[in-house]
Amino acid sequence: MSNQTAPECIITTIGVDLGKNTFHLIGMDARGRIALRRKVSRGQLLPCLANVPACLIGMEACAGAHHVGRQLATLGHDVRLLPAQYVKPFLKGHKNDYRDAEAIAEAVQRPTMRPVPLKSAEQLDLQALHRVRSRLVGQRTAVINQIRGFLLECGIPVRQGPAGLREALPTLLAQRTDVLSPRMIHLIEDLAGDWRRLDERIDAITRDITALAHQDVGCRRLMGIPGVGVITASAMVAAVGTGAAFTKGRDFAAWLGLVPKQISTGDRTILGGLSKRGNRYLRTLFVGGAQVLLQRPHHWDGHGFGRWLQAAGARLHRNVLAAALANKLARIAWGVLSHESGYDPEFAARAA
Fold it and tell me: How does 11-21 read in b/e, with b if 16+ C-beta sit within 10 Å?
């Protein structure tokens, strides 16, 4: 196959296999025949596609795809990002870069394929803050567990929770020298210093997220929903933008993995546990918000869905109730974000 475009062929679809330094392109005409097969460097991509008439361009949603997609969109192309798992069934034969690009070109033409919306630079900045904060929170948890483990090895149990350990640690290091060696005391003091530094970094990033969230109209609307705070609202805007990729709240909840896993055949409908697909970080935030609401039953009446929550609480296990409430919160959040309206408790009560 030639690396040049045949003059009699009009390219309608291009599949781009992204790489760090080199990209592989497969172009197809309206009949699905390969009319372009080319390998270009990162610097050559835009000049190459600037000379191609506006067409449909497909890429896998991966690192750097949103940046390249925005650049190609400015050239007038219809750019669509596809999840990698949706491209895999179209791969023919053994894997190589050209076949990957051909599979992308085939997949992006499917009318039922749901693309990943292009993220703006502001969304990527907000998403980066959340990812760094999540990593730091995980490191802080690891440090806390390590301190607790060392103390337990020396026969010193500490009550559950970071607050209890933080409160008891100075007294333990000063008074329990009978079981704590000088080396162990020095080691735990260093770990406590790591804990403090991680707290400072997490607080600084949280302040940045809060400032950005208060500047965004969508985040301010979402923060009016019970159980949705600054972190959840900003994470949702960073992940889905305006929510235009979903036609209804149920689709958004299913994308989050807050629906039962379905294993059905024939006339039998079998529903299992939560599917846990999609954005794990955002799903965890919604479940956490639901669990906080369940701890405050005296506030249920003011949330709009209080009567539904009381009726469901009488028949469902607490963990199942938390998942159901997280599903409802996610659907409400999508409605608020998509319809560009604030949270209305009375409407929520009628919908419940």
Answer: bbbbbbbbeee
